């Protein structure tokens, strides 16, 4: 889970930030207009983490990951079909904001998938794998771009977010509002939270 989440966060962020000006030029915009559009849209990278500050602790990290993953998949899927400049900027801004929110949540939550004794090492390993994947990202994006254009790249990113969102929906672990001592597994593999729930049900 941690590896898939990290790879998706970094790959999605790279595609949106690194290739967006190229997409605009390919659609016929001048370089100067492309950079202007990109600057306006990239302000979503400020809005996304600010939105996380407001809502994540209220609705929980797992719910937030599923929500932002779903929104990113949707807006990434429709973005290539935007033609009007106002829609390009508006949809692009929302897309970048959701990508930034997902990146903040994903990288921040990754260490919590590992036991306390291995949290730093586990998080570091996941980050390493994610960044190795990031090294190969330009080759993957270039192949998709040359094969089927902008749509292929954006839909591939959208598909990754759909996959990781479904995975978190059915197999994710929500550590929100839980102390580390409560979610850390004992020697028999059961968490303190699960044991407390079982104890309460037997009373």
Q: Please, could you describe this protein's structure?
A:
The chain is mainly α and 203 residues long. It has two domains: 2-172, Up-down Bundle (Growth Hormone, Chain: A), CATH 1.20.1250.20; 177-203, no CATH class. It has helices spanning 2-26, 31-42, 44-59, 61-78, 85-109, 119-148, 150-171, 180-183, 192-202. α3 runs antiparallel to α4 (61-78) and α6 packs antiparallel against α7 (150-171). Its main location: membrane.
Structure keywords:
single chain, 203 residues, mainly alpha, Growth Hormone, Chain: A, 9 helices, globular, disordered C terminus, membrane, MFS_dom, MFS_trans_sf
CATH level-1 class of the largest domain = Mainly Alpha
Query: Structurally, how many domains make up the residues?
Result: 2
Percent of residues in β-strands: under 5%
List the secondary-structure elements in sequence, H or E. HHHHHHHHH
CATH fold-level topology of the largest domain: Growth Hormone, Chain: A
Largest sheet: none
Shape call: globular
- Our measurement of the CA-to-CA distance between the termini, rounded to an integer number of angstroms, reads 35 Å
Helix % is over 70%
C-alpha Rg (nearest Å): 19 Å
Structural class: mainly alpha
Q: What is the β-strand count? A: 0
């Amino acid at each position: 889970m941690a590896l898939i989440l990290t790879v998706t966060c970094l790959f999605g962020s790279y595609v949106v930030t690194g290739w967006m000006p190229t997409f605009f030029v390919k659609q016929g915009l001048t370089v100067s207009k492309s950079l202007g559009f990109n600057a306006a849209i990239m302000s979503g990278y400020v809005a996304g983490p600010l939105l996380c500050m407001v809502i994540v602790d209220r609705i929980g990290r797992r719910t937030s990951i599923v929500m932002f993953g779903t929104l990113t998949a949707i807006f990434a899927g429709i973005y290539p079909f935007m033609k009007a400049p106002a829609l390009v900027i508006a949809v692009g801004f929302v897309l970048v904001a959701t990508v930034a929110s997902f990146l903040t949540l994903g990288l921040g939550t990754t260490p919590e998938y590992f036991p306390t004794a291995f949290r730093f090492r586990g998080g570091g390993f996941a980050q390493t794998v994610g960044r190795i994947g990031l090294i190969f990202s330009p080759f993957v994006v270039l192949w998709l771009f040359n094969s089927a254009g902008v749509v292929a790249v954006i839909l591939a990113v959208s598909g990754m977010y759909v996959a990781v969102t479904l995975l978190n929906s059915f197999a994710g672990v929500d550590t929100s509002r839980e102390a580390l001592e409560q979610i850390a597994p004992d020697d028999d593999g059961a968490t303190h939270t699960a044991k407390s729930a079982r104890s309460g049900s037997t009373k």
